[in-house]
Amino acid sequence: MEQQTGTFAVKKGLAQMLKGGVIMDVVTPEHARIAEDAGAVAVMALERVPADIRASGGVARMSDPELIIQIKQAVSIPVMAKCRIGHFVEAQILESLEIDYIDESEVLTPADESHHINKHAFKVPFVCGCRNIGEALRRIGEGAAMIRTKGEAGTGDVVEAVRHARTVLGEIRRLQNMPEEELMTFAKENGAPYELVLETRQLGRLPVVNFAAGGIATPADAALMMQLGVDGVFVGSGIFKSGDPARRAAAIVKATTHFRDAHILAEVSRNLGEPMVGRQISSIPQGELIAGRGW
Amino acid sequence: MRIGVLALQGDFIEHITTLKRIGVEASEVRLPGQLEGLNGLIIPGGESTTIGKLAVAYNLMEPLRAFARERAIWGTCAGAIFLSKDAHRDQPLLGVMDIVVERNAFGRQIFSFEVDLPAPYLKPVDPSGRPYHAVFIRAPLIEAVSGSAQVLDQLPDGRIVSALQGRLLATSFHPELTADDRYHRYFVELAR
């Protein structure tokens, strides 16, 4: 057999290699090196962390390719980058830059209010956000090789990440206990592809790796998400908006590995300096919430 | 027979699932005490820099080197890098196998690939001799073997993708990502 590239197995496979790890948002090559030294499994290269996108308002787009190239050169771990929902040309550009993973992300301003990118058309793998099982399975149906629960990015408030993880994992548990004749209606009600509903039920988990994102700011937050049952965590603003990013980053990495060991969690949580200030989600006007983006 | 899987980071659950499917007891190893009573250890795929840093932070380096002197260890991808003597980069390595590796040797993720390998040494666990379908993800190459290390698999162009040294096994690819459990059965025999 000839060598085959860009297969779903290798796209999904890279996400499997990231499991049990922390993917960190970085805005400079220097940040990227700090993240790698702290033990990050990958970095997300972007111009502004979500907290700053939220603060500055305006249209948020794909980052400058120059910045992405510099960050790629700074580290040996995988580099991810974000494109806008539905903006398949930004995705083509990121693929040409040989980025390792594309995040079709609600954190950026959507380019299409009805459609996501056909991710099967790319050799580069995609990760997409979800709030529930229907959204997760639609993204996988479009070719996403990795899923992350959305949370509410740039807030430092973990409550939405918990809500989305509990929703997805709870729906999977319900699916497993459901009589067969109810599965088609489940697919219909959740807007989920039927075959993927069957596969999820049989596996007892999403068919691809599922990380948590959006609001994780402390080692305890990361361990909480791991104990709830996700495969790993994205930390966006939580590291580089804190008082001592290198120390906090290393602590979150350790907490993600030893997520069930309260003694180690206590040890790594000591003397981390100021966490990001954060913004309570209940204080944010509905129109400024970003997790609702995605169709 | 009990095999541990280093569970600091990476796809350790995939290894554990495969081991259980072939009837072998498997356990997660995150701290040195969890190495006790194991017949062998698998170091999974993942990020070798992350695995190395966590191994240093939790005092696993010397216990793992001692384990390698007496018992079987198999490293897949990041695990193979971690077993090597040299990865051309400043990162923690066990250095227990006489192999030199080049990380990300095939380029970035879009060049990750699947290919069939002849794998004739799997015949003792499966006489059919059918090829082994291997999945390579941002894979390392084994640039050179020395000492008592020997080459197991090569790509058609001669590049080395697995090596064996006594009871230490290094593969650039990921048998834990496929349904074919011959590689795990091969390792269990090595650990016996």
Strand and helix order of chain A? EHEHEHHEHEEHEHHHEHEHHH
**Chain oligomer state:** heterodimer
Note the total helix count of chain B: 5
Tell me, what is the CATH class of chain B? Alpha Beta
Q: Mind telling me the C-alpha Rg of chain B?
A: 15 Å
Mean pLDDT of chain B: 97
Strand content of chain B: 25-35%
Note the main sheet of chain B: 7 strands, mixed
The sequence of SSEs of chain B as H and E is EHEEHHEHEEEEEEEH
Q: Roughly how much helix do the residues of chain A carry, as a percent range?
A: 40-55%
Indicate the proportion of strand residues of chain A.
Answer: 5-15%
What does the radius of gyration of chain A come to?
A: 18 Å
Poorly predicted sequence stretches spanning 5 or more consecutive residues of chain B: none
The tally of strands of chain A reads 9
Structural class of chain B: alpha/beta
CATH homology superfamily of chain B: Class I glutamine amidotransferase (GATase) domain
What gross morphology of chain A would you assign?
Answer: globular
Assign the CATH topology of chain B.
Rossmann fold
* Poorly predicted tracts of residues of chain A: none
Structure characterization notes:
The complex is a heterodimer of chains A (295) and B (192). Chain A is α/β, with parallel strands linked by helices. Helices cover 43% and strands 13% of the residues of chain A. Chain A has helices at residues 8-18, 29-38, 50-56, 65-74, 88-96, 133-141, 159-176, 183-190, 194-203, 219-228, 237-240, 245-257, 262-268, and strands at 4-5, 22-26, 42-45, 79-84, 101-105, 126-130, 146-149, 209-212, 233-235. Chain A has an 8-stranded parallel beta sheet with strand order 8-7-6-5-4-3-2-9, with helices on both faces. In chain A, α2 packs parallel to α4 (65-74), α2 (29-38) runs parallel beside α12 and α7 packs across α9 (194-203). Chain A is globular and about 55 Å long. The relative contact order of chain A is 0.15. Chain B is α/β, with parallel strands linked by helices. Chain B has a single domain (2-191), classed as Class I glutamine amidotransferase (GATase) domain (Rossmann fold, 3-Layer(aba) Sandwich), CATH 3.40.50.880. Chain B contains 5 helices and 11 strands, in the order βαββααβαβββββββα. Chain B has helices at 12-21, 48-57, 61-70, 78-83, 182-191; strands spanning 2-6, 25-29, 40-43, 72-76, 99-102, 113-117, 132-136, 141-145, 150-154, 160-165, 168-171. In chain B, the strands form 3 sheets. Chain B has a 7-stranded mixed beta sheet, sandwiched between helices. Chain B has a two-stranded antiparallel sheet with strand order 5-8. The longest helix of chain B has 10 residues, at 12-21. Chain B is globular and about 40 Å long. In chain B, 53% of the residues are buried. The model of chain B has no long low-confidence stretch (mean pLDDT 97). The chains are: A alpha/beta (295), B alpha/beta (192). The interface between A and B is large, with 41 and 40 residues.
